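Researcher: We're teaching a course module on how sequence relates to structure. For the next exercise, students receive a sequence and then see the predicted structure as tokens, so they can try to spot secondary structure elements on their own. Here is the exercise chain.
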Amino acid sequence: MFERMPTLAKPRLLRSFAMTWGSHSDRLSPQSPHRISRWRGEAGGLRRMMDTTGTDNPLSYSSFVTQSNAVLESLSARLSHAVEQHGVPGAQVAVLKDGRIWEAAAGKVSLATGVDTTVDSVFQIGSITKVWTATLVMQLADDGLIDLDDKLVTHLPGFALADAEAAASITIRQMLSHTAGFDGDIFTDTGRGEDAIEKYVSTLVNAAQVFTPGEMFSYNNTAFAVLAHLIEKLRGAPFAQVLVERIANPLGLEHVCPSADEAILRRAAVGHSPGSDGLVPTTIWALPRSNQGAGSMLSMTARDLVGFAQLHIAGGLAPDGTRVLSEKSVAAMQTPQVAVPPLRSMGDSWGLGWDLTHIGDTLVVHHTGGTIGQAAFLCVIPGQKLALAALTNGGGFFGIYQDIVVGLVKELAGVDLPPRYTPPPTPAPIDLAYISGTYSDASFDLTVREEDGTIWLDRVPKGIEAELGEQPSTAELVPLAADLLVGKEPAGGVYPVYAFVGDQASKATHIHYGRAVRRAD
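Model: And here is the predicted structure for the students to work with:
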């Protein structure tokens, strides 16, 4: 379900993909300019928002409450229990169903300050930003400024990679669907100026090509940072400004903060990471501005996040009927573009921005995000007009995903999201010659080897990973299938999964864990 959330990075994006309560209030506030009436809760309480569709129909509201009362009215208590059980400092959840939103919050935005998490607190959404970036790119297509199958260099003639031929052939569609094939984890900090993204793109001249453009899926942060520059160039304004003016404002989203400058004016959550005596607040709040399009700093409330999801449920319409995105573009974003290896940390395919999972006849569109000590989850079932968002600031955030997101999807939609893999009691047969060897990218050398009947994965950091203090590690792998292995021990609360793809003289060409890493031997 996740693009990837391994061990916390130092100052960089998670390479994806991690208590007290106030009381429920019965005070009804006036409607906002966006025709949203709210039951406002106290700190950490439940707030019921109704009618983002613009129709204040008490009968339809009563009908929905009758059907979902037992689940949604227990949201606060449920989240409070999950936060305590999984050692999460603070969390926020919002559920959108048929145009109405329920939300709850629990815990603290920072263990250092002890400030309560409320439904108005803002959390970073990390890589979920990519769906916002993709939406902005699709708006460019709607306005006739691009075609998705245009070569990127048609609009960004300065775009260059180590492989000049590949750089000249990469299309915008390949960038959106993570099939461009170049190094996807470049996080160069080019400063805080408005030219940070443009400067970043100019640093990619030595970025290596991992596979031929369009050949396969490999999650690519770098591509979305470049797409942010495409948006800036064709809109003639900074990426953050375009995002607010063309998405947040038309949708009436009130707490969207594109940078720390805006977040500091809100009750902002701080990430937490493990320390010698438990979780401690991180010393860096946001990642470089250069990676804004990939998800380095955008923050908001869970309510705002499901409000954004409503756009993709409503066929591109804002709550007041304004056309923000064409119905054709909404459908295209939810249409499979490329198959994803069966890792279960992601869906079965990728659309344009969205991670996609097909469960029978039900389409689930989703994305996750991680930054420094914060993790976010967004799950949408367009056919049932349902969206769920959960935002966390450290600790056992996968427990929040499992208990809240997976649980609510089951209870509200009758859909069982695929469980993550665990080590099988009996290992599957495997062709050691096919999988063994060394695989290498800019960040790690990965060696798969067999010793006394046991399969091991040696992981040696290099480049920026080594500079940031990442240490070599060795992990035992257990075969799930001939080309699919799972770690024997969990990492960050989940068992890592590795697929082996391609065929080079009866040897896998790549090891794949959301990223494709090319064989080096």
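Model: If you want an answer key for the exercise: The first strand starts at residue 27 and ends at 28. Residues 1-66 have pLDDT under 50 and may be disordered.
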